[in-house]
Amino acid sequence: MPVTDASPSCIPTLREALSRYLLEITPQKKGKLQESRRIHAWQKHPLGDLPLDRIRPIDLVSYRNNRLAAGRSVYTIRLDLAVLSHLFEIARTEWGHETLGNPVKALRLPAFPPGRDRRLEPGELGKILSLSTQVMKDLIRFAIETAMRRSEILSLTWDRIDLEKRVATIAETKSGGKRKVPLSPLALEILQKRLSENQGRPFPLSPDDVSHRFLDACRSAGIRDLRFHDLRHEATSRFFEKGLSVPQVAAITGHKTLQMLHRYTHLRAEDLALKLEECSGPPPKRE
User: Fold this and answer.
1) Which of 64, 213, 238, 255 is catalytic?
2) Catalytic option among 149, 150, 213, 233
3) Which of 38, 63, 194, 264 is flagged as catalytic?
4) pLDDT at 276 over 60
5) Rounded Cα gap, residues 108 and 54, in angstroms
6) Which residues pair with 167 in a beta bridge?
7) In terms of CB atoms within 10 Å, which of 128, 163, 202, 231 comes out highest?
């Protein structure tokens, strides 16, 4: 049974509150496994011994700075602090501790680094494909044609693919809900070939297997600083280069905001210069 004693004199320690949060709140979340790991890490932290009302913003400043100094990514630190912030909000609004402040809200969060702008250079894709197995060749091409995430591609099953309508349905996306992805002629061709070779999933690989195989091919080809997820950036940029509108690209990629879509779009200046040349006509007459 959940703890119901919410009198002001019974403010729990951070460790105790996290245990309750783990039982009542975390199971309702899509990313419950990842959040459980973050909670267990917080419970081992020295701050876990303090009552919630004794945790100050300066304590979290030390936590933030120590994590940055240890080389943890900004994304990781912000996610860790987000768990703590939500815990304080739940304690205040649902557990009866109305006077409890949220020290995370007074904290200056570390700024996100500039988004990656790595795209495939001429010749790189051919080198990677030449050093990849057939299933990886198909997967890489499919990723570039659809802008789907690694997890989304690997979760595809044949019952979620309509070859006649040329649509693949992602049952559960990173941002929640499902998304229907239109299939280009090449993406459709890849799936039709995979269907003739497989009775299970189109791409029967694990996420780690895909990442390791991709990095191995890049190393063998002498290609640096390229990750499998960069193919999603590549695909998104190619959609715009083909002339698709912002709403059309967002519908394919699943980006909820223009800001996030922009982070995944990297149009080359030299390509835009060629586009301007193609679109240019005689200069307008001036009266």
Assistant:
1) 255
2) 149
3) 264
4) no
5) 19
6) 162, 182
7) 231
Whole-Å CA distances, 248 to 169, 230, 261: 16, 20, 11
Q: Does residue 213 surpass a pLDDT of 80?
A: yes
Q: How far apart are CA 188 and CA 179, in angstroms?
A: 17
Catalytic site residue 174? yes
Task: Give yes or no for a contact between 177 and 254, defined as CB atoms under 8 angstroms apart.
Answer: no
The architecture of the domain spanning 8-106 is: Orthogonal Bundle (1.10)
* Same CATH fold assignment for domains 8-106 and 124-268: no
List 37, 165, 174, 268, catalytic entry: 174
Written as one string, the DSSP assignment of 102-136 is: -GGGGS-PPPPPPPP---PPTTHHHHHHHTS-HHH
Fold observed for domain 124-268? hpI Integrase; Chain A (1.10.443)
Question: In whole numbers, what is the pLDDT of the chain averaged over residues?
Answer: 87
255 is known as an active-site residue: yes
pLDDT at 278: 63
Q: Is 21 known to be catalytic?
A: no
Q: Is 149 designated active site?
A: yes
| Residue ranges covered by each domain of the chain | 8-106, 124-268
Examine the residue annotation and report whether 40 is marked as an active-site residue of this protein: no
- Of residues 64, 194, 213, 232, which has the active-site annotation? 232
Model confidence over 102-126: pLDDT tens digits? 999 999 999 887 777 889 999 999 9
Amino acid at 119: R
